């Protein structure tokens, strides 16, 4: 029997699964190492696969890896990721060297979009977008059945769409007024600081007091306080919703999808707060027909299913770019 390995290297968790064509058979979830050298993560992946499914290693046909970016697609290396304290993360070559089989490495959102086509909501859909709302904001896009890859594998960095060109809020990338500046979980402390420095008095806001004391707030804290009626949390969520509706409207106007699925921890944990107001604001800002918009039903495993889909049915463009790595190493 032939097996596939799917790996999803996330900013906080790494998921590794053994699978067949039909789906995942067994999986392991571990914390992604934050420190180390360029081989720390690939060594961990090799150790887990060998330790857990060692007797099946000879039957592994293809390994698909979905990873946080940015990615040097040709070399299968993550470069200068803002999420971990490693300058480079080597994924393609060490896995090929160890397992002596074909490996594909792609951006996690790009993979997730392909996962939707094979295992999720887009099985019979040729034009759709997958969006993640998490520590950052990203997308994977399929147009006319083709997965968009881009020259470096970083197509659809939609989190850096400018949703307010006059904004004072800085994005993690250094730009201003980007969608991710407002809606990236990682950037929420900066937005809170901006709101507090505008001169509005948030009387009775416990969250404002916490921020003033230097507490490092994250998305969970913001949404917890939002549910308790905190006025600063309300303004933060309000900006989050407006920026996300603006960003999504731009994405819909750009790609004309039939379907938009949304994943990522910030969205999936707060669908009750976010879904309805975001969809309502989009409808006034698009020139094409409104697509179906819904949370991904693959949940936290959307990247893992994406990695599996990439292994089972690698898109043509990816094959052109990465298939030669295996052949070169094998000869
Ligand atoms: Zn940016």
The major pleated sheet works out as: 5 strands, mixed
- Helix-strand pattern, N to C? EEEHEEEEHEHEEEHHHHHEHHEHH
Helix-strand category:
alpha/beta
On the 0 to 100 scale, the average pLDDT is: 93
Helix content: 25-40%
User: What name does the CATH topology of the largest domain carry?
Assistant: Nucleotidyltransferase, domain 5
CATH superfamily of the largest domain: ATPase, nucleotide binding domain
State the name of the first-level CATH class of the largest domain.
Alpha Beta
Number of helices: 12
- Provide the list of bound ligands, each named once: zinc ion
Question: What does this molecule look like?
Answer:
The protein is an alpha/beta fold and 331 residues long. It folds into two domains: 3-114 and 300-325, Nucleotidyltransferase, domain 5 (2-Layer Sandwich), CATH 3.30.420; 124-296, ATPase, nucleotide binding domain (Nucleotidyltransferase, domain 5, 2-Layer Sandwich). It is 40% helix and 21% strand. It contains twelve helices and 13 strands. A hairpin with a 4-residue loop joins strand 5 (71-72) and strand 6 (77-79). Helix 1 runs parallel beside helix 2 (92-99), helix 2 packs across helix 12 and helix 3 crosses helix 11 (302-312). Zinc ion is lined by residues 160, 171, 173, 175, 178, 180.
